[in-house]
Amino acid sequence: MVRERRDLYSLPDAPLASRCYSHSKVETDEEFDARWVTYFSKPDIDAWELKKGMNTLIGYDLVPEPKIVDSALRACRRLNDLASAIRILEAVKDKSGPHKDIYPYLIQELKPTLTELGISTPEELGMDKL
Amino acid sequence: MTIRCTTSPQCLEAFLVKYRKVLQCLTFADQYSKMSLAKPVMRGLLGKRLRFHLPIAFALSLMAAAAFKFGVTEPRKRAYADFYKNYDATKEFNNMREAGIFESVRPTGK
């Protein structure tokens, strides 16, 4: 019942992000990134919006930019959700698929944020091994 | 040819302390051994993979279908056609009758 009134128009959602070069205006990569940074920067973001945002973001054919992940991690901090923060790191690692150079780069870029917010990486917790 | 170091240990130590960072840079020691990673491509990776693999997949599938058609089904159809081209049903019936496999007609008793 609560979710009915959820304003889904606030979601920076799919249609513009898909690169079909039809009549609609094509969004640039920078605009896309800015939209998602803004989405996660909402001061009173709630847990549902965080989850929905992450799930939508993971559905795209891209690995999120460090600044988007940074914004999402800060949203996790506002929500006191360490589990989601670590899960986000696992998710972006999985998104890189066979491209092993993406995740180390992301961690390199996110290191200051991870230190500031006190987030351990899955590797530090030994969670990357089965 | 040996080279004798004429600097005193204290001077040498002061020099090393002062120029530690420079030396580390030059020798790629410590944290400078890992050069800062360059930004990799992070967008459109699946699209790129599909654009490469899907045409190959379709081509291979079509080739497999064509190979089966011309390697199996066509020879099979030809074999049947050849068999029935000059098939004499009556003669075959009589052969079967004589062999005694029917119940409705007995062999022409001799």
UniProtKB/TrEMBL annotation, chain A:
One of its GO terms (biological process) is mitochondrial electron transport, cytochrome c to oxygen. Pathway: Energy metabolism; oxidative phosphorylation. It comes from Esox lucius (Northern pike). Its main location: mitochondrion. It is a peripheral membrane protein. Pfam families: COX5A. Component of the cytochrome c oxidase, the last enzyme in the mitochondrial electron transport chain which drives oxidative phosphorylation. The respiratory chain contains 3 multisubunit complexes succinate dehydrogenase (complex II, CII), ubiquinol-cytochrome c oxidoreductase (cytochrome b-c1 complex, complex III, CIII) and cytochrome c oxidase (complex IV, CIV), that cooperate to transfer electrons derived from NADH and succinate to molecular oxygen, creating an electrochemical gradient over the inner membrane that drives transmembrane transport and the ATP synthase. This is Cytochrome c oxidase subunit 5A, mitochondrial. InterPro entries: Cyt_c_oxidase_su5A/6 (IPR003204), Cyt_c_oxidase_su5A/6_sf (IPR036545). GO terms for cellular component: mitochondrial inner membrane; respiratory chain complex IV.
From TrEMBL, chain B:
Its main location: mitochondrion. It comes from the Eukaryota. The chain crosses the membrane at residues 52-72. InterPro entries: Cytochrome_c_oxidase_VIc (IPR051389), Cytochrome_c_oxidase_VIc/VIIs (IPR034884), Cytochrome_c_oxidase_VIc_sf (IPR037169). The keyword Mitochondrion applies. GO terms for biological process: mitochondrial electron transport, cytochrome c to oxygen. Belongs to the cytochrome c oxidase subunit 6c family. PANTHER family: CYTOCHROME C OXIDASE SUBUNIT 6C. Component of the cytochrome c oxidase, the last enzyme in the mitochondrial electron transport chain which drives oxidative phosphorylation. The respiratory chain contains 3 multisubunit complexes succinate dehydrogenase (complex II, CII), ubiquinol-cytochrome c oxidoreductase (cytochrome b-c1 complex, complex III, CIII) and cytochrome c oxidase (complex IV, CIV), that cooperate to transfer electrons derived from NADH and succinate to molecular oxygen, creating an electrochemical gradient over the inner membrane that drives transmembrane transport and the ATP synthase. This is Cytochrome c oxidase subunit 6C.
